[in-house]
Design goal:
Layout (H helix, E strand, L loop, with lengths): L1 E7 L3 E6 L4 H7 L2 E2 L14 E6 L9 H9 L8 E3 L9 E4 L4 E2 L4
Parallel strand pairs: 1-6
Antiparallel strand pairs: 1-2, 3-7, 4-5, 4-6
GO molecular function: iron-sulfur cluster binding
Protein name: Ferredoxin
Organism: Streptomyces dysideae
Amino acid sequence: MTHRVAVRPSDVEIEVLDGEDLFSAAGRLGYRWPTVCGGKGTCRTCFVRIEEGAENCSPVDPLEREGIEALRKPVDGLTRLACRLRVEGPVTVTKRGVRRRVQE
């Protein structure tokens, strides 16, 4: 089963598979997502703001909690790391810099 994540302001829609994190889904579908660590949960560059659908998001795990605290953001379920975020329904997030990879 897939779940739709709308990414603002780029108006990208990403279909996330059950058990897949948002960062990996974006990569699988050919999108470049801002990152330094490549999805290991350590650089925190991939963080998103949940605009709608927070109830459809996985719980914040310990590594993600540490990252959100390091960003000096509240651990309120609305700031999430895309590389740790799994969804179980429609979600809308804000993340600048998400775009299609250029095909060579």
